[in-house]
């Protein structure tokens, strides 16, 4: 890639004042670096990934409201986690985390366990119990 | 306490940390040099690991490997420490800073406040340097940022003790012993040979064979997994290739810069020709990303589209195979 071909597309990097560094060749064929504001093929990929998470979160929210899963699954999706990541944050086996997705099991969780989840999601126990609050 | 630390932005975080720490200790060494000597370039498919619900491909070696190989090859000794308790981790960090010793840190990006929200995934292999502490805040040199920044004790603890795959466990590292002069020539040859060996390895999940494997999978995904999942997977490949830190073209341009610098040190003109060749291969990776993005942009791609990008990857695999065979002979 030539230095003057380094893409300067619009992207969400701007909001945080970050620029991407590229290695590119100058007019004498020498390698140099150039900063980039973004490149649309990867911005689209990132946007899609974010949309995908939003979709997953919304599905989980609906499931909570239908009482087919517990708020833990909703908060897990909201925090871009999967069961493995969540399990390591709360320090509970994955199979137990999965069980806590059951609304009936979730309701009976002891205070200590539910506090662990609340801490990881950075919400109060009350907010964890009722996702619409 | 604040030491005289020069921050220089780099494309990739690990290279940047090494380059900046080396400069602090009196050795000027460029990012591409660190990357090339540390044999950072790779292609690998990790089907057993899923990130963001998609299989992982990587264009570089595992975190930490670049510095270890680089250090061993130029004769530098690195000390690494991990901790089970955040208190001990902080105490050890403070002790180093008190001795005016900036250290490299492995951190997770999910809680890294100065990153844009969209970039904050559960990715635990980011690297930064902490070079001082001022009024309770840590002074941070994050190689992918243009300028230095700072984090509170609490903020730093959060990212040092991120959980999930590659959990950093407070990991700190820093060079402790240096030779009088870096043995660059031998180190460069070693680094190149290693990369050539990896890229042409007779293992299905590594090197050009893995590129061919991904090409085959791309043809199958829309049929076996449906268009939505296929596009999600394809998007993840492009993100791994072009996300912050690759220097463009899945590290191929950084490698081109390395070969150019190496040709001068080794007095080897063939490496200039090969630098141009890997640059062109980098361009092909970029073309692949452009065409792949056309597919996942519309979400309504035809089978033809997938076959076309798969063909592109297969062609790249052939070119890289020929390239690394030539490179091996050139040094």
Structure, explained:
The complex is a heterodimer of chains A (133) and B (331). Chain A has 133 residues and is mainly α. Chain A has two domains: 3-38, no CATH class; 52-129, 434 Repressor (Amino-terminal Domain), CATH 1.10.260. Chain A contains seven helices and two strands, in the order ββααααααα. In chain A, helix 1 (40-65) runs antiparallel to helix 2 (71-78). Chain A is elongated, with a radius of gyration of 22 Å. In chain B, helix 10 packs antiparallel against helix 11 (303-330). By secondary structure, chain B is an alpha+beta fold. Chains A and B meet through strand 1, strand 2, helix 1 and helix 3 of A and helix 8, helix 9 and helix 10 of B.
Write a brief caption for the model.
The complex is a heterodimer of chains A (133) and B (331). By secondary structure, chain A is mainly α.
Low-confidence stretches of chain A: none
Tell me, what's the shape of chain B? globular
- How many domains comprise the coordinates of chain B? 2
State the major sheet of chain A.
2 strands, antiparallel
* Share in β-strands of chain B: 15-25%
Give the mean pLDDT of chain B.
Answer: 94
How many DSSP helices of chain A?
Answer: 7
Report the uncertain regions of chain B. none
Rg for CA atoms of chain A: 22 Å
In the sheet with the most strands of chain B, the strands line up as: 3-8-4-5-6-7
**Biggest interface:** A-B, 40 and 53 residues
Query: How large a portion of the residues of chain A is in β-strands, by DSSP E?
Result: 5-15%
The counted number of beta strands of chain B is 8
Distance separating the two termini of chain A: 51 Å
SSE arrangement:
The complex is a heterodimer of chains A (133) and B (331).
Chain A: E1 20-25, E2 31-36, H1 40-65, H2 71-78, H3 83-90, H4 94-100, H5 103-107, H6 111-121, H7 125-129
Antiparallel strand pairs in A: 1-2
Chain B: H1 13-24, H2 31-37, E1 41-51, E2 54-60, H3 65-74, E3 77-81, H4 86-98, E4 103-107, E5 126-134, E6 137-141, E7 149-152, H5 153-160, E8 172-177, H6 184-199, H7 207-224, H8 227-242, H9 252-266, H10 270-298, H11 303-330
Antiparallel strand pairs in B: 1-2, 3-8, 4-5, 4-8, 5-6, 6-7
């Amino acid at each position: 890639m030539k230095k003057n071909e380094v893409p300067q597309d619009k992207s969400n990097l701007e909001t945080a004042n970050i620029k991407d560094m590229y290695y590119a060749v100058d007019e004498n064929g020498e390698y140099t670096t150039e900063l980039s504001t973004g490149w649309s093929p990867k911005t689209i990929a990132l946007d899609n990934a974010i949309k995908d998470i939003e979709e997953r979160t919304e599905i989980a929210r609906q499931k909570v409201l239908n009482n087919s899963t517990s708020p833990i699954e909703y908060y897990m999706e909201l925090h871009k986690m999967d069961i493995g990541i969540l399990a390591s944050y709360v320090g509970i086996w994955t199979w137990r985390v999965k069980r806590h997705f059951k609304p009936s099991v979730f309701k009976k969780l002891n205070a200590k366990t539910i506090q662990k989840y609340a801490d990881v999601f950075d919400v109060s126990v009350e907010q964890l119990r009722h996702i619409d609050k | 306490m604040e030491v005289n630390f020069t921050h220089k932005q780099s494309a990739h975080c690990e290279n940047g940390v090494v380059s900046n720490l080396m400069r602090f200790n009196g050795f000027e060494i460029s990012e591409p040099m660190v990357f090339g000597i540390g044999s950072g370039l790779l292609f690998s498919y990790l089907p057993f690991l899923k990130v963001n619900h998609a299989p992982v491909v990587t264009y570089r070696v595992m975190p930490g490997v670049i510095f270890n190989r680089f250090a061993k090859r130029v004769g530098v000794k690195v000390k690494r420490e991990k901790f089970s308790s955040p208190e001990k981790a902080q105490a050890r960090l403070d002790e180093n800073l008190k001795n005016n010793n900036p250290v490299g840190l492995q951190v997770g990006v999910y809680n890294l406040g100065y990153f844009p929200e969209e970039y904050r995934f559960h990715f635990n292999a980011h690297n930064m340097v902490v070079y001082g502490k001022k009024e309770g805040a840590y002074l941070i040199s994050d190689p992918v940022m243009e300028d230095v920044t700072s984090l509170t004790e609490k903020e730093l603890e959060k990212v040092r003790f991120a959980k999930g795959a590659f959990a950093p466990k407070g990991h700190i590292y820093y060079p402790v012993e240096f030779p009088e002069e870096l043995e660059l020539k031998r180190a460069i040859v070693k680094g190149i040979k290693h990369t050539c060996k990896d890229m042409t390895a007779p293992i299905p999940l590594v090197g050009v064979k893995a590129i061919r494997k991904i090409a085959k999978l791309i043809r199958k995904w829309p049929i076996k997994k449906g268009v939505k999942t296929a596009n999600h997977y394809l998007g993840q490949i492009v993100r791994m290739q072009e996300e912050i830190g690759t220097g463009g073209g899945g590290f191929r341009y950084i490698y081109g810069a390395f070969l150019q610098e190496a040709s001068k040190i080794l007095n080897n003109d063939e490496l200039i020709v090969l630098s141009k060749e890997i640059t062109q291969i980098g361009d092909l990776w970029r073309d692949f990303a452009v065409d792949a993005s056309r597919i996942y942009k519309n979400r309504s791609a035809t089978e033809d589209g997938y076959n076309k990008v798969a063909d592109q990857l297969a062609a790249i695999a052939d070119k890289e195979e020929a390239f690394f065979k030539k490179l091996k002979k050139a040094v």
